[in-house]
Specification:
With 352 residues, the protein is of the alpha+beta class. Helices cover 47% and strands 18% of the residues. The longest helix has 24 residues.
């Protein structure tokens, strides 16, 4: 449990908050003269300068290169986020528009996740990331088969989290409408209501129907269904990334070496998924600052993320990645709002 006692007195806290605000807005080191000019501390520049020097010794500020000014350290940002930032809420109009944009979307979950990330990037001007809903406890809610043309058949699998998967099958022979209907009914009776994880674990093999006159059709459909289930279980590809170009616009990443590391990690979906999955274990809204990040490539960035749910079940993570010089209050407000909107929409779809 964190103690309420603060290592910084009231004036130092005000100075740190002002430095964070100035640095976020300008991307430049902040000097004592700027603080005296822009804020009413009631003391001279020399006093502010001495306070800043003490805070640097304590680890809350750092002095880049030979600049006379200071910038917040990771510890300084952490103190700001935990104690000084205040309540994070989006302006009402922006919150309403963001919710309307999302609630008007179609019911394809992949598309909803992508559009949620795009809206989030628009709100924050940071790179947004999200995992697809996990398959834990996800059930098959509908299986449909329909003839398309010739030997082609359309398989539709609807899941309890709102996702709908489609596959076109090339059959070994012509089949009648009655065969298709009989197969669809049989599959539905066996699989609808079953959890994906249970089907993966126990299986439902075509061998049990080997004596059935339509077993070759069932075999073809089960093969396609297996591909659907496999595609739902590939964590390295189940990450949405939108607005990666916003990293390029940050002054911190004019250094090519810094930039390349971040962009490479955004491309490594497996590692990115592992990182986002860890966020599910944290608080409802998680803030990871600079060197708190387990990946070295992300030590010049911060992550603000939140869980989203389908009903009462935690289904995934959504968040933004930006420089440590992040507008944390707005990022937290936007991520929290979009996680709630996404949870509400996916829960509604799961019940339909």
């Amino acid at each position: 449990m964190r103690s309420n006692a603060s290592p910084l007195d009231t004036r130092k806290q005000r100075i740190l908050k002002a430095i964070v605000q100035e640095h976020v807005g300008t991307a430049e080191p902040v000097g004592s003269e700027a603080l005296v000019t822009n804020y009413d501390f009631g003391v001279r520049s020399a006093t502010i300068r001495n306070e800043m020097a003490e805070m640097a010794e304590m680890g809350y500020l750092r002095q880049p290169h030979t600049s006379a000014g200071r910038v917040p350290s990771d510890l300084g940002y952490r103190f700001y986020v935990d104690r000084l930032m205040g309540t994070a809420t989006l302006p009402r109009r922006e919150a309403v528009v963001a919710k309307e944009q999302l609630s008007s979307l179609a019911s394809e979950v992949d598309f909803i996740i992508t559009q949620t990330c795009r809206i989030l990037t628009g709100l924050t001007r940071y790179t947004s990331v999200a995992t697809q809903p996990s398959t834990d406890n996800t059930r098959i809610s509908h299986i449909g088969l329909s003839k398309v043309a010739g030997r082609k058949l359309l398989l539709v699998v609807a899941l309890s989290d709102g996702r709908v998967e489609h596959r076109i099958l090339d059959l070994r022979r012509q089949v009648s409408s009655s065969e298709v209907e009989k197969t669809a009914n049989l599959l539905a009776s066996k699989l609808v209501g079953q959890e994906i994880e249970t089907i993966k674990t126990t299986g439902w093999t075509r061998g049990s129907l080997s004596a059935d006159p339509v077993s070759d059709l069932i075999a073809d459909v089960l093969g396609a269904l297996q591909h659907v289930i496999d595609s739902l279980s590939r964590p390295d590809t189940d990450v949405c990334v939108e607005g990666a170009n916003h990293i390029l616009r940050q002054p911190e990443f004019k250094d090519v070496d810094r930039l390349e590391g971040v962009l490479e990690l955004l491309e490594e979906r497996r590692r990115l998924y592992q990182f986002l999955s860890r966020a599910i274990l944290g608080a409802d809204v998680m803030i990871i600052i600079g060197t708190e990040n387990p990946f070295r490539e992300m030590h010049d960035t911060s992550f603000v993320g939140a869980k989203y749910r389908i009903g009462s079940r935690v289904a995934g993570t959504i968040g933004v990645i930006g420089p440590t010089r992040m507008e944390y209050q707005r990022a937290v407000a936007a991520v929290d709002a979009m996680a709630r909107n996404l949870s509400e929409l996916l829960t509604l779809l799961s019940l339909s």
